Amino acid sequence: QLEGLCSFLQLSTCPEHLLVRFCSWLLALTPDLSYTSAAILAEQLFLQRVLSLAQPPSRHLMAALASFCSKYSQPFCRVLVAAVLREPGEGAEQTKLVCELVEECLEPDCVRLVLSQVLEVPLSEKLLPVVQAVLGWQEVLPPKLFDLLVMTLCRQAPAFATSLNYAKLVTAVLTMYQNQVS
Prior knowledge:
Layout: H1 2-9, H2 16-28, H3 35-51, H4 59-86, H5 92-104, H6 108-120, H7 128-136, H8 143-155, H9 164-176
Helix pairs in contact: 1-3, 2-4, 3-4, 4-5, 4-6, 5-7, 6-8, 7-9
């Protein structure tokens, strides 16, 4: 029903300045939206906009994304960030957007969720800045997630033999977690 309503209201194509107002209205709702409803809204409101970015997002889109993330970050990450990570190709604007969200909007549990989502797909040059943004967040990773990160970096090292971003990432891991790396 919610998908039908979103389609009827054409929320996926509404002007971005109205999207900000709509998100403000969503945040004021009580009780809060269910996880499923928030996931559907994240998909309907943002997915196509983000996947089609060819230039940096407008300030209106960033404001709408940030406000939605402030309250519904788990479903947002599961829907939108997961889709961006799975999207083939360069996706430079999408990657920058995810990095900005990690650095400025997401709560610690969602930052860890983003990292676990990155580690579920084969690493690519496109995803290295996302991992770097997570490490720049300066929180200690849980041991299992840290071990998975190290194993992934070790396994995929040959594919990044000439990558400056990979070298920076490994250096960051070795610097931040020097006591855990043997």
